[in-house]
């Protein structure tokens, strides 16, 4: 990504404002020193001079930040979080989002942002980064910044052959952490529906208004996330209900397929079965449940999980080969 703000970075950068050797996965894939300044987020090559051109600059004076997310990466030996910043470059369409993504570790240097009177924090790198964005008046969503009653949870899912995590957040649904990232504003979601229901998994289809469509016409589009474990259905459905999102599962053209041999552990399967039975009775006929063709190919090649090894050697040759594969996918904001 071409940096359009190289003339605006802040100098000098104080040592306490830097996080050394941070694993960056967007917009570049390498380890960089991350500087948190009053007006910019700057990523530089490790141990480079502050006068050297940075690899990445996000300038709050020129770029518009939609939101920042500090999301825990589950099932890691040491606690780690992904920092994602969705932003729009100066002069770009408001719906055209770029992403910055970095992985922060629990044992990263802690004294990054120094608190001032009236500010509270726990002293961890996570709390310091939250404090930094709050000082910039940039909304940052994490477990520490939302109320206990607010929805914030994740569910493993696939988009095509790529596995990832679906995060259900206040105001958003987010899928990461591999390219292309997908961010939905709830206000742009027209409907949620469930399909391909089996005893253990189901798919979720999001129908949305595509804000990136050319011209003034609003275009509708759909994205399907598959192989979601049944244990997550109740929370997802509650999220849909609480946010008044339309459940389109029982639309005539969206009848969820149900395996009639399965005994469903939640109300999901029974609800679909009962609705189809009612429809069949109303039309004076009998209507059996469709047998699911659950032919998922788990052998498809998937992208490397960049978060699985933050100590990997980020050589230029490795980065080039990975970027060649990833660059065919554009990051999305929906």
Automatic annotation (TrEMBL):
Pfam families the UniProt entry points to: Rttp106-like_middle
Keywords linked to the UniProt accession: Chaperone
Superkingdom of the source species: Eukaryota
Region (Disordered): 280-334
Biased composition range(s): Acidic residues: 294-307, 315-334
Sequence ranges assigned to domain Histone chaperone RTT106/FACT complex subunit SPT16-like middle in this UniProt record: 152-250
Gene Ontology MF terms: histone binding; nucleosome binding
Membership in a protein family: Belongs to the RTT106 family.
Protein name, as recorded: Histone chaperone RTT106
Lineage, broadest ranks: Eukaryota, Fungi, Dikarya, Ascomycota, Saccharomycotina
């Amino acid at each position: 990504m071409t940096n359009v703000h190289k003339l605006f970075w802040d100098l000098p950068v104080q040592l306490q404002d830097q996080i050394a050797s941070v694993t960056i996965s967007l917009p570049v894939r390498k380890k960089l020193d991350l500087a948190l300044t009053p007006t910019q987020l700057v990523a530089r090559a490790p141990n480079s001079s502050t006068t050297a051109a940075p690899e990445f600059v996000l300038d709050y004076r020129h770029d518009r930040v939609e939101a920042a997310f500090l999301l825990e990466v589950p099932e890691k030996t040491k606690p780690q979080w992904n920092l994602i910043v969705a932003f729009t470059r100066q002069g770009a369409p408001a719906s055209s989002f770029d992403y910055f993504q970095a992985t922060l570790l629990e044992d990263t240097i802690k004294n990054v942002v120094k608190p001032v009177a009236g500010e509270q924090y726990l002293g961890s790198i996570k709390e310091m980064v939250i404090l930094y964005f709050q000082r910039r008046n940039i909304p940052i969503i994490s477990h520490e910044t939302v109320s206990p009653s607010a929805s914030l949870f994740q569910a493993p899912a696939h988009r095509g052959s790529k596995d990832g995590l679906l995060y259900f957040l206040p105001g958003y649904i987010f899928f990461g952490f591999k390219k292309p990232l997908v961010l939905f504003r709830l206000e742009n979601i027209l409907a949620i529906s469930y399909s391909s229901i089996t005893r253990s998994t189901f798919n979720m289809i999001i129908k949305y208004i595509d804000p990136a469509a050319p011209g003034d016409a609003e275009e509708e589009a759909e994205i399907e996330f598959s192989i979601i474990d049944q244990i997550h259905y109740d929370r997802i459905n509650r999220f849909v209900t609480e946010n008044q999102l339309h459940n389109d599962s029982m639309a005539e053209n969206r009848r969820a397929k149900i395996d009639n041999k399965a005994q469903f552990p939640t109300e999901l399967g029974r609800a679909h079965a009962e609705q189809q039975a009612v429809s069949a009775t109303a039309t004076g006929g009998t209507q059996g449940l469709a047998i699911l063709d659950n032919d998922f190919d788990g052998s498809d090649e998937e992208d490397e999980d960049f978060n699985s090894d933050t100590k990997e050697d980020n050589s230029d040759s490795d980065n080039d080969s990975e970027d060649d594969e990833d660059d065919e996918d554009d990051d999305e904001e929906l």
